[in-house]
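Example for tutorial group B:
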C-alpha cells in the first residue's frame, strides 16, 4: 500500500481527474436543467452528490490513513503492527462505502444517459 501511495502522492493528473469528474457532473446537471430535462438533471445531480460523498470520505479518512501508514516507515521495519491493523480495518470499510457510492453513481449516470437519449431522439 505504501508503494501505491507513493506513486499517487503528488500526481497532479490523478488529483485533477478526481476534481474534474465532480465539476463535469455539476456542469452537466446544470446544463440539462437549463435544457428542460429535469429527469436527466436530477439523476446527474445524484451522480454529483454521490461522487462528492466519495471525495469527502477519500479526503477525510482514506488519505489521512495513507499518510499515517507512510509515516510509519519502511514496511519491513515496522515493529508495531497495530497501525497496520487499524489502517486495514478502517480503510477497507470506507473503501466499501466508496465503492457502493460509485456503483450507485454509475447506475444513476446510465439512467440519465438513457433518458437523455430518449429526449434527443424525439
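The residue assignment follows.
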Amino acid at each position: 500500500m505504501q508503494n501505491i501511495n507513493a506513486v499517487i502522492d503528488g500526481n497532479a493528473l490523478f488529483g485533477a481527474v478526481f476534481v474534474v469528474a465532480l465539476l463535469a457532473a455539476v456542469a452537466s446537471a446544470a446544463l440539462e436543467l437549463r435544457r428542460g430535462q429535469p429527469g436527466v438533471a436530477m439523476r446527474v445531480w445524484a451522480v454529483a452528490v454521490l461522487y462528492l460523498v466519495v471525495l469527502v470520505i477519500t479526503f477525510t479518512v482514506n488519505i489521512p490513513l495513507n499518510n499515517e501508514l507512510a509515516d510509519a516507515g519502511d514496511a519491513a521495519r515496522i515493529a508495531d503492527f497495530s497501525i497496520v491493523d487499524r489502517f486495514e480495518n478502517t480503510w477497507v470499510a470506507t473503501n466499501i462505502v466508496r465503492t457502493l457510492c460509485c456503483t450507485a453513481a454509475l447506475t444513476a449516470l446510465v439512467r440519465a444517459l438513457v433518458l437523455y437519449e430518449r429526449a434527443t431522439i424525439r
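The chain is about 85% helix and 0% strand. Compare this with the pattern of hydrophobic and polar residues in the output above.
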